[in-house]
Specification:
The complex is a heterodimer of chains A (about 230) and B (about 425). Chain A is of the alpha/beta class and about 230 residues long. Chain A has a domain of about 160 residues: P-loop containing nucleotide triphosphate hydrolases (Rossmann fold, 3-Layer(aba) Sandwich), CATH 3.40.50.300. Chain A has seven helices and ten strands. In chain A, β9 and β10 form a beta hairpin. In chain B, a hairpin with a 2-residue loop joins β1 and β2. Chain B is built from 14 helices and 13 strands. In chain B, α1 crosses α12. Chain B is elongated. In chain B, strands 1, 2, 3, 4, 5, 6, 7, 8, 9, 10, 11, 12 and 13 form a 13-stranded mixed beta sheet that branches. Chain B folds into two domains: about 180 residues, no CATH class; about 190 residues, no CATH class. The chains are: A alpha/beta (about 230), B alpha+beta (about 425). Chains A and B meet through α2 and α3 of A and α1, α11 and α14 of B.
Chain lengths: ~230, ~425
């Protein structure tokens, strides 16, 4: 298992009120799987994504990523997990506006301490992989939404992560760009990249090999009413 | 690190106006410090040159009675109790380390009885000198000749005048070859002496300073020392002038010479003894005084640096808030906390160092303007320049700490949510 969540419970303090957001979530993914998590807003899907993305820690429960116990990780170890094992794609792309596509893609390699020359080369190849070889020196404001998201995907993939985490990757895109991004995901998955995608769009979820529903902090495999036990 | 510096320059360049305004406090602070330090250094070098006499390095070692110069004309003490400088002592002084030359002379500070025809010279100085005097003290013969060996061998009654003595005794007449009277003895004027042009006047104390620069002209007469007993007394005490090889060696050389001369004293703890006129010390005291006055100005300038630093902190805090989403993203894709911390610290340090550099340049310009307008000499101090740039970098780091920690501790979830 590349991902394994057991009895994950997460609560937030809201004033004096304690609000449980995730209640006993059990979820796992095999290497190379393509899973979509669907749920309405407020269902806890973003919280779950933050925990899986090593940006937040669960209140209780166990979480293993590639065999590593994330709950026992220090802040720096969590940073390193994000750097080496995870790639993030966000709804609003989050590209740095002052930097070119190439520089944006280079950024994780910089944190990983890759030497400059290799950095340029790998960033270029990643952009080539998403079909933007001619756009390497463009800044985000010179690119279309779909192109920006593809730059973001190149950035997420440049450090060869185990898992690609996508939070509403098509949320800000028109349908043509959306299907381009989905085709790209499919081809990455075909190359063996594990993909976990959050969406509220059933059509987009169709692309995934498996869909999990989240409602009121609880997971369900699509079509069943049992707690998601993983595949 | 290089990457951070590149990012910092990029950030500064994107917000040119804001960066410049932020740096302004630092620029003003550093510019004032540089111009003040340059003025201090210039003034103190001027004092040193004026008091010591640039290039001459002559130290007078004079016989003192208590705190004032001993003057034989007032006949204090009997000659028996006064020290006589022997040939051995003279030789010992000439052989001291760092001594280039030494001369020994008899003197009268206020001498009357100097006449040419009906004219008299009141209160002039008369010195009985050896062959080294002119050279050691930095005088040259302007007209006529100096003393030669035969003058000494034959006890010739010859005299050298300075321009003041010449003009007060001879007015428009040509003095060379004329005979004047000193204490009733006839002396023939053989030459006119003057300061060597390359030398500053020898200034031993403020009296000398004022007498040289003031209008109290008295005039000086030089006669061969062998003639001294003819006009004054036998066995008078001599004074000495020692020329040191370097300005720095002046104090030591003077003190050593005084020590050697004092060996001949009958009573070593007596009132009358040789003291070297320590110009270097006087100069140092003067410099200290001017430095402490200006040191207070430096404090005021430092306050502007402090204000500048607070300005930098303020802008950095704004910048962190503005760039919340950038920071959040960087943390999300795997930048460690320290990475973010150093990125912002570097930015603050680069910003203030740049301000420091601009400040140094404006400070040098300002110092030159002050120098032109107020006539104060300046000397640009390299350590002050390096120190200023270094110090402004430190200001950036110190005042950048709070904003940088704020950035490093941002929660990436919160940071990314803000869109």
């Amino acid at each position: 298992m590349i991902l394994e969540l057991k009895d994950i419970y997460k609560e937030y303090q809201q004033g004096k009120l304690v609000v449980p957001v995730l209640k006993c979530v059990n979820f796992s993914m095999k290497e190379g799987e393509y899973v979509a998590i669907m749920g309405p807003s407020g269902s806890g899907k973003t919280t779950l994504m933050n925990i899986i993305g090593c940006l937040d820690k669960a209140t209780s429960g166990e979480f293993y990523m590639d065999g590593q116990d994330v709950n026992k990780c220090s802040e720096n170890e969590m940073s390193d997990l994000r750097l080496h094992k995870l790639g993030f794609v966000f709804q609003s792309f989050h590209l740095l506006p002052k930097q070119t596509a190439l520089e944006n893609v280079e950024m994780p390699l910089n944190y990983a301490g890759v030497p400059k020359k290799a950095r340029k080369e790998r960033a270029f190849r990643a952009l080539e992989r998403v079909g933007l070889a001619e756009r390497v020196n463009f800044r985000p404001n010179q690119l279309s939404g779909g192109q920006m998201q593809r730059v973001a995907i190149a950035r997420a993939m440049v450090n060869d992560p185990k898992i690609l985490l996508a939070d509403e990757p098509t949320g800000a895109l028109d349908s043509k760009s959306s299907s381009q991004v989905m085709d790209l995901f499919q081809s990455l998955n075909d190359d063996g990249v594990t993909i976990l995608m959050i969406t509220h769009d059933a059509e987009i979820a169709e692309y995934a090999g498996r869909t999990v529903l989240i409602r009121d902090g609880e997971l369900m495999e699509k079509g069943g009413d049992s707690h998601g036990q993983g595949a | 690190m290089l990457e951070n510096i590149r990012l910092a320059f990029q950030g500064i360049w994107t917000h040119k106006m804001r960066s410049f305004l932020t740096m302004l406090g630092i620029i003003i602070g550093i510019a004032s410090i540089i111009s003040i330090v340059s003025t201090i250094k210039g003034t103190s070098e001027q004092i040193k040159e004026q008091l010591i006499g640039a290039g001459n390095n002559a130290v007078k070692v004079l016989l003192y009675d208590g705190s004032s110069e001993y003057d034989a004309s007032w006949g204090m003490g009997s000659n028996a109790t006064l020290p006589q400088i022997t040939e051995e002592q003279k030789e010992e002084i000439r052989k001291l380390e760092n001594v280039e030359n030494a001369t020994f002379f008899y003197s009268r500070g206020y001498s009357d009885g100097v006449y040419y025809m009906e004219r008299s010279m009141q209160g002039g100085k008369v010195y009985g000198i050896d062959e080294n005097y002119l050279d050691t003290c930095g005088y040259v013969i302007e007209a006529g000749r100096g003393f030669v060996e035969r003058d000494y061998q034959d006890y010739r009654k010859v005299v050298l005048l300075d321009e003041e003595a010449a003009s007060s005794l001879f007015q428009d007449e040509i003095p060379l070859g004329k005979t004047i009277e000193i204490k009733g003895e006839p002396f023939m004027v053989v030459g006119i002496f003057t300061q060597a042009e390359t030398f500053q006047p020898i200034i031993n104390n403020y009296m000398d300073y004022y007498s040289y620069y003031g209008d109290v002209g008295t005039g000086t007469l030089l006669v061969p020392n062998v003639d001294w007993p003819i006009i004054y007394k036998y066995d008078e005490s001599e004074n000495a002038v020692v020329r040191a090889a370097t300005t720095e060696a002046m104090t030591t050389v003077g003190d050593k010479a005084a020590k050697i001369l004092n060996k001949a004293l009958a009573d070593e703890n007596g009132q009358i003894k040789y003291k070297s006129n320590d110009n270097l010390e006087t100069a140092k005291q003067q410099q200290k005084l001017s430095e402490s006055t200006n040191g207070q100005l430096l404090w005021i300038a430092s306050i502007s640096l402090l204000v500048g630093g607070i300005g930098v902190m303020n802008i950095m805090l704004v910048s962190v808030t503005e760039r919340t989403s950038e920071i959040g993203l960087k943390k999300a894709i795997g930048a460690r906390k320290n990475r973010i911390l150093f990125q912002f610290l570097t930015e603050a340090a680069v910003l203030t160092s740049l301000g420091g550099l601009v400040g140094v340049v404006s400070g040098i310009v300002l110092a030159n303007v002050i120098s032109r307008m107020a006539g104060i000499p300046i000397a640009i101090s390299v350590p002050a320049i390096l120190g200023s740039v270094g110090f402004s970098m430190i200001i950036g780091i110190v005042f950048g700490l709070l904003p940088s920690f704020k950035a490093a501790n941002l929660n990436p979830i919160e940071a990314l949510r803000r869109d």
